[in-house]
Amino acid sequence: MNGQIMRLTYVALALVGVLVVMTTYWQTWAAAGLAARQDNAIRRVAEFSIDRGLIFSFEPRRRLARNRERVVDGKTLFFRRYPYGSLAAHVIGYSTVGRSRTGLERSLNDYLTASNGNLSTVLDKALDELHGRPIQGNNVVTTLDLDAQEVAQEQLGTNCGAVVALDPRTGKVLVMAASPSFDANLVEEHYGRISRITANCTPAAPLLNRASAGLFIPGSTFKVITVSAALESKKFGPGSTFYDPGYCTVYGKQVHNFADQSGPEVFGTINLVTGLVHSVNSVFCNIGLKLGAKRILDTAKRFGFYERPPLETPAEERLPSGLYRDGNLYYPRVDSNVDAGRMAFGQERMLVTPLQMAMVAGALGFGGKLMEPRVVDRIVGPGGKVVDEQAPHLIRQAVSARTAHEVAAMMRLVVREGTGTAAQISGYSVGGKTGTAETGVSESNTTWFIAFAGKDAESPPEVAIAVVLQNQSGVGGTTAAPIARTVMQAILQGTENP
Amino acid sequence: MSARSRELAGLVVAGLLAGIALASVTIARDAEISASAVTWAALFFALYVVAHVVVRRTVPYADGALLPLTAVLTAFGIAFVYRLDATDGGRQAVWVAVGVGALAATLIVLRHDYRVLESYRYLFGVAAVGLLLLPSVPGIGERVNGVRLWVSVGPLQFQPGELAKICLILFLAGYLREKRETLAQGRLKDVGPLVAIWGAAMLVIVVTDDLGSALLNFGIFLAMLYVATGRALFVAAGLALFVGGSAVLYNAIGHVQDRVTIWLHPWTDERVYCALNGKLEYRQDCASYQLVKSLYSIANGGFGGTGLGEGTFTSVDGTQLIPYLRTDFIFSAIAQELGLMGAAALLLVFMVFVVRGMRVALQARDGFSKLLAAGLTFGFALQAFIIVGGVLRVVPLTGITLPFVSYGGTSIVANFVLLALLLLVSNRANAPR
Predict the structure, then answer these.
(1) Which of residues 264-323 of B touch A (CB under 8 A)?
(2) What residue ranges define each of the domains in chain A, with the CATH number in brackets?
(3) Fewer CB within 10 Å of terminal CB in chain B, N or C?
(4) Of B177, B203, B181, B193, nearest to B370 (Cα)?
(5) Prediction ipTM score
């Protein structure tokens, strides 16, 4: 029988051996993946014993997220406070016991809890552990301009909408405001008060970061992409002429010009510049029909459409822009799948995020260079040592410098004498484009203004912006453009007097 | 150095380990070394010295490693149950004392010749089946967590399954010793008992919904059948029958189906129907809640663990994050606080115990003793595998105790009886003729 017993011994040892292997698997190989899961309450609660890193605005340098210590069962725990309440709440997000995390609190959790792999952090953490004191997380300095952020939130008021402003030269996000916002301090214990927030839209969805996860019909702001595609194709130039009968014929049906335009109902013979300055739909409808949907979409892709805009916030809180069908991003296989005429002036199931449109405005103002947007300036260790800092990164040359300059010049004319005059700032050269998208319900338009502004037409712009408002009775030039001007002014004047 | 001296030296080490563990727990709990930790460790050591003296008197030639290994396992158990719940820690210590009493009683009663047990083999067989079905008797059986495992008479509660395991091994050792030659010939008519036991295992699942117990007892049966006959074909056929039968039951019994679904797909990306509250939930928030939380606990330990008393088992407001932590999920608690090093050390102790137990089986001189020692040791290993494997998602999770470590009186006492039987077999094998 001893032979059998020996073999049985091997089986029994193998069984326990499997347990050793699997314990190793869960504690080393799979541990990081499990720690990152949103439903991992154990990890989340355990991390409350870490002196979580602070989150700062760039200028003025203020603490947007700090800790409040509380002793529970003899253990010191660190709970989050957000001194600025609803200001930039969507970007910062929240870190709670009961409702997990969002925003930078979620995506930068590793840095904030000193779980990142940088050597200095690992050493600091080991020292903290050896001394038996709470582990100190790394601090995050965002790129946000807190004063301008406050102005943007005020300007949005009770409207549903968003403002994104960035520095087109570096991609640094200066303002990222979504409305309605919420007080992140209420999430843990007074969540009911957040769910009762109302605004000029239903559902108000205060937790939704409309700036990067809100999808809106771009309306006429999309025309800057159509123009770019037209100029890139070399089939059109700024002087190309069109005959505008007040409508354009698509599939035998007449598509009429829209209220967003300024000037007469019927323009007659006009050139491309006038078409953009007065936002004449029939002009773009005809360009769309001539170029085909795919050529325009390919230009849009060069600006970042059809991919999640890169940013440090969680991927779930950023959506790609593009054509949507049944809630999914959709790219047509052949031109005839899409009504290119309507798409060319920003209808036809084209949906975009304010972040994407700010990137478009920025790239057009900055000679066609699409810079990677970023909202984190740098990550600093508890002792002040910089742990991570990224240099500005060019995503790609979206369109040729020549095309960008020509479109930018047209956009400056829009602000000087077209639909966007409300965005003029004295002493600065502003280029922009209005948008007013019909949602099918009267008096409930989605209005837009996208713009860039710099010292003069020759120097690169210091700021690019996208403003969107939901459920508006007015048009983009009267509702969104003034907000864009006020926020840009706050940013530009802030940089003049630091 | 004699086996007994080695045993005493091992017990000193185990006592020191218990002292260190209890001291760290009290430091983490109260931020000071309280005298009670030292007192408890001293009592713990004294208890095992008593066991040692009884062993020295009754089975002087027995293996010297088994008792210290048991002491280490129970030290793990007491320290962790105490860390999770001070009151239950005290109770666990009392149960270990009762277990040592059971060990002493078994050794004293059977010190002359334990082989008398062989003649009661059919009694043990009936007792095993009876004990397994006891929790299903209306009035005294209790359903906990969807499984009928418990029997309660008045204030007393016990898990008959733990005792049934030992009765079954005693029955099989006697029965297979008697029938091994005829069985080894592999004639179809001799396979009858095999089919009968397979049927009984299936019956247990149907009646109690207890997949873990069925797996354990059937596994022990196959192992002992193999040792007795040396025919791997029997094992293969038995496994095929078990898998086939389980597959049928899988479709017939919702509880078994749920367990397997949880095992294969603990996480869902979509909300699925949740039977607990009738709503649509992610499975990780509903049916597989226990398993997933346990895995999070293990993962949170990492390589070195959080340290004794420093693990996270409750939320900030004191609510439990992992259910059944002291019983089924004690391994996830150990793995979190002691990390891979501590958990692997615990598993190594189990491995050494298995090696020593199997060595007893190899040294034993008669068929009954060999079968008994091999069966007891394999049952011990398989039980650890089923519960820890369930916690680690190696096999579907079923509620069963981790021998000597989990909180629970019946389990502790039954495993001390198991240890006593191994010591008796070992003593006889090593005794000078």
Answers:
(1) 267, 282, 284-285, 292-293, 295-303, 306, 312-318, 321-322
(2) 41-142 (3.90.1310.10), 147-182+200-378+391-496 (3.40.710.10)
(3) C
(4) B177
(5) 0.93
